[in-house]
Structures are given as C-alpha cells and as structure tokens.
Design a protein that fits this description.
The complex is a heterodimer of chains A (238) and B (316). With 238 residues, chain A is of the alpha/beta class. Chain A is 36% helix and 26% strand. Chain A has two domains: 142 residues, Rossmann fold (3-Layer(aba) Sandwich); 68 residues, no CATH class. Chain B is globular, with a radius of gyration of 20 Å. The model of chain B has no long low-confidence stretch (mean pLDDT 90). The chains are: A alpha/beta (238), B mainly alpha (316).
C-alpha cells in the first residue's frame, strides 16, 4: 500500500493557536498517517506550541484537528488522551514526587489491556527502568526521566504519540538510544509519531516525512529523503 | 477503668487536639497532595456545626436521640459537601492566589451569614439547646464518651487518608498537585478529581463541625474565626504537609502543647485564660508557620517518601 493510501491518523486544517492573544501558529495544514512525522525548526519556531495544541493543552483560535476522522478541536485534553493521543512534553514530563512505577501506573489509568502487561512492555523497551521502579522520578537523570515520560505515555496505549524534543539536552549516548527507541515504538507497536526536533540530522534518519516550521508557519510536508539542505537553511533562517 | 485523672479542662483540650487533627488530615489531602491551599476550612466546619445545631434545636423532630443526632449530622455533612462542590467548582481553574482569596472569602461569608441571620442562628448572642445524643450520667462521662466517638471518626479519616496514599486516586491527586498541565493529558479529568476531593473533604469537615457542636453544646460565631483554620494549617505544616503522619505529629506539637500542656498544667494567672491566651495562641501558631516555612519547609517528618512506601508495598 502506498503511503498516500494509508488512512490519516491526524488531519490538521487552518490551525491557529498561541498564548494570551499572541498568535504563534499561523494556518497550519498537514496530515499524519501511520508514520514518523517530524517537525523541524529552530528555537521559537512553534514546535512546542504545535504539540501542546495537538494534545489540546492550548486552545485553538481557528482551524480543526481531526483524529481518526473525529473532530477533537473542542475536546478537553483528557478526552483526547482517552481517544489515543499520548503526549510527552519537552520538560517536566514526569511527576517528581511519584516513583517510576507510580508514574507508569498513572499513565495506565486508561486503556483496556492489563496494566501489568503494559508495564512489562515498557520495562522491556527501557530495561533500566525495571531497576529504578521504586525510585522517585525527581531523583532520576535527564535521560532516565525522559524514558519514564515516554513509558508513561505508552502506558496509555496511544495510537498517536506526540514527542516534544525528547533528546534535548541529553548526552550523545542517550540521543542515539532515543532515536532507536522511537523507531522501535513505531515499528513494533504501530504507533504514529509526531516528533518535534531541533536535531535535524538524527531526526531525518528516523523520519518518514518532515515538516519544517519557521516562526509559526510551515513549509509543505514532504518525504524525509527529499529534504534538501537549502530547505533546512530556509526553515531555520540560517 | 477510671478516668479520674481527666478533668474537664483536659477533656476539652484533648477534644480540641482530636478535632484539629481530623481537619489537618483532610487539609493534608488538599494542601499536601494536591497543593490546594484551602484557607476556608473553618467555613466548611462552621456550616456543619451550624446546620447541625439549627436543625437539632429549631426543628421539631418526631423522633428523639440518637436518631435526631444522626439525621441532623447527616444533613449537616451533606450541606458541607455541597458547599465544597460550589467552592471546588469556583476554584477549579484558579491559581494559588485565586484559591486563597476564594476560600478565605467563603469562610468570611459563612461567618457573616451566621452573624446576620440571628433569628435562625442566634447571631452574636449564640444559640444553646444542643446536647449529647446519649446520657450516661455525669456531664464529664458524656464528654469523655463523646471524645471517644470523635476519636473513632478521626481514626476513620486517618485510615481513609492512609488508603488514598496507596490508591490510584491518590496518585492522581499527587499528579494534579505536581503538574496539573501534564496531568490533564493522562486521560482522566483533573477538574473532576479536584472537585471530588473538595466534596469529600468538605463533607468530613462538616461532620467534625457537627460533632464539635455537640461537645460545646452552644453555637458561637466566635468559633468561626480564622483560628481553627490556622491551627490545622500550622499543625500540618509543622509536621509535614506531604506526610500522612505529619498532620498528627504537627497538631500534637502545636494544639496539643498549647491547649493541654500550657492551659492545663502551667500555673498561669486565671485572667490570662480569657484575654491573653487566645491571642497568644494565634500569635504563636502564626509564628510557627513563619519559622517552619523559613527553616524547614517540608516540616518535621520531611517530604513525601513514595520510594520507601513503594518498597514497603512491593517488597523491593
């Protein structure tokens, strides 16, 4: 089946949003299928705002978001989460006072499958968490904390995972590990992923399609393999 | 077994400690777990006390105690729970400052209404006519038994709070308190969780208010001031807002030391009890809050220990 023939997981049309009357995202249109869809852009491009808007944590001022055919533009964030949108923010993705295991359990408040089964899957994906399960999340390193955040979102059995710069500020070892895991999550679980990243080189290695965001406006999404250095330069305003 | 060593002063002091411990435990769920700074504790407690008192004294019930007490206390508990529903709804999307203003305003409103509606509540004159739902002889024996009932209710609250710490609902409360924005993406309504907490805690505060009404047997608007909220908050913060036992330890060290040790055992001049001591009590509790927040913000028992709790539960 060609990529275009795959059903759309997420359809965004005319999306505008921002903070306190300031419009950050300006008329974005894109579709995400069952793929790794990467959003590239410099600091302040609007990547974090876009993902928080898709997770319904920031209200839209115009446009629509359709998830698996359903208009979720006006739904509360917990309702979109219950429908299958998992969200991992760039920072503060864990609950510092809760242990690793409790963070995973709280992610598994929704979902049909056994919680123990899901926890075991997360431990298989990030084996280091098995050893750290009784430790409070606030005492973890940056990389471990991102694993917990990612595991917590996976506990929701999402159909679409929103990852906001999961490798920002991490050591090269963790960066490589995370990109491998992102690919593994998509391939083994069939989860569509929207990945916001600054690290274009690594992101392009795992992405199926890429959208470059610049000052809240998007250059048309295209296959990752076809992105040129010139397009990235324009996107990053270099 | 005789309780001759318990004089009336001591029973009143112990009752005060037990009452404030119950309130501090409920406040622990709000402030300690969910980071909701509820400064309106006395409002919910006062609604319970006044609704109970007015129903008990003014309504001509066709049945007597203990059913009269049970029906009036149940209605008072529900009334406080409904007040919690209203206040919880009002503060649902407010920040800490907003919560503080609304809850403090609510407590003030309760006191104003109780004062203004004097044909119903007795207003500034107060209202008598309340009594124990039983009579086993001497007043002191009745008070002692009532202290026992109140201790049982507070033990029930302690058990509930202990259970909450180990439950998915408790984890959700902690998550909401730690990072509400992230908690909203977990698939459960944070507003509903906070609202439910407010309803339950307010209803329990109302029940404690009704039980206080029985003990004092007189409704006095002087009881609706900030001091009971301050006592619960000072005790909780001293013991540690995030720990279950923080409320218990803290209240024993504040209200216990003040209302039992100082008032019952120190040879203070008689006139101090009516003027100086109540003012000193509030001043010392306020000072305790400042000192603890400056030098030991997590209180005597320290911060939440989820890691040791989980090891205890899972044996790792």
């Amino acid at each position: 089946m060609s990529e275009e023939a795959l059903p759309a997981v997420l359809e965004v049309a005319g999306l505008r949003s921002g903070y306190h009357g300031v419009t950050v995202l300006k008329d974005l249109d894109f579709t995400v299928r069952n793929e790794i869809f990467t959003v590239l852009g410099a600091n302040g491009a609007g990547k974090t705002t876009l993902l928080a808007t898709l997770a319904r944590l920031i209200p839209l001022t115009a446009g629509t978001i359709r998830f698996q055919g359903e208009d979720v533009s006006a739904l509360a964030p917990y309702r979109t989460a219950a429908r299958g949108i998992g969200y991992v923010p760039q920072e503060s993705g864990t609950f510092a006072d809760l242990t690793v295991l409790e963070n995973l359990k709280i992610g598994g408040m929704i979902g049909q499958r056994s919680r123990e089964e899901r926890i075991a899957e997360v431990f298989d994906l990030f084996p280091v968490l098995r050893k750290l399960q009784a430790q409070t999340a606030g005492t973890l390193s940056g990389g471990e904390s991102r694993m917990v955040a990612c595991g917590r979102a996976l506990m929701q059995d999402p159909k679409l995972l929103l990852l906001d710069e999961p490798t920002a500020g991490l050591s090269p070892l963790y960066v490589d590990l995370f990109f491998d895991k992102i690919k593994e999550i998509h391939e083994t679980r069939g989860v569509a992923i929207v990945l916001a990243e600054q690290n274009a080189t690594k992101a392009l290695e795992v992405a199926d399609r890429v959208m470059v965001l610049s000052l809240g406006q998007a250059f048309a999404a295209q296959d990752a393999a076809e992105v040129t250095t010139q397009q990235l330069k324009e996107g990053y305003r270099i | 077994m005789t309780f001759d060593f318990l004089d009336s002063f001591l029973i009143t002091g112990l009752f005060s400690v037990v009452m404030v411990t119950g309130l501090a435990l409920l406040l622990h769920l709000q402030l300690g777990l969910t980071r909701i700074a509820n400064f309106g504790v006395v409002g919910f407690w006062g609604i319970g006390m006044y609704v109970f008192g007015v129903l008990y004294v003014k309504v001509d019930w066709s049945f007597g105690d203990p059913y009269q007490f049970l029906v009036c206390a149940a209605i008072a508990t529900i009334a406080s729970g409904l007040a919690g529903l209203l206040v919880g709804w009002l503060i649902a999307d407010l920040d800490t400052d907003g919560v503080l203003v609304v809850t403090l305003g609510f407590a003030t409103a309760v006191q104003l209404v109780a004062t203004a509606q004097d044909d119903i509540t007795g207003g500034a004159r107060g209202m008598g006519g309340l009594d124990f739902p039983f009579d086993i002889g001497k007043v002191k024996d009745n008070e002692l038994l009532w202290l026992g009932f109140t201790m049982a209710v507070v033990a029930g609250i302690l058990f509930y709070v202990w259970r909450v710490h180990r439950s998915p609902y408790g984890r959700h409360l902690i998550a909401v308190g730690a990072n509400e924005r992230l908690a909203r993406s977990l698939g459960k309504s944070t507003s509903r969780t906070k609202l439910w907490l407010f309803v339950i805690a307010s209803a329990a505060m109302g029940l404690l208010g009704a039980m206080n009404g029985v003990m004092v047997r007189f409704l006095d608007i002087g009881n609706l001031g900030i001091d009971i909220t301050l006592a619960a908050m000072a005790g909780l913060i001293l013991g540690g807002t995030a720990r279950v036992w923080g409320a218990v330890v803290g209240v024993f060290l504040t209200v216990g030391v003040f209302d039992i040790v100082i008032q019952s055992y120190l040879p203070l001049p008689r006139e101090w009890y009516t003027q100086a001591i109540p003012v000193m009590r509030e001043a010392i509790f306020g000072l305790t809050l400042i000192i603890v927040l400056l030098f030991r913000p997590y209180g005597i028992l320290g911060d939440m220990r989820r890691d040791s709790l989980m090891r205890k539960i899972h044996g790792r």
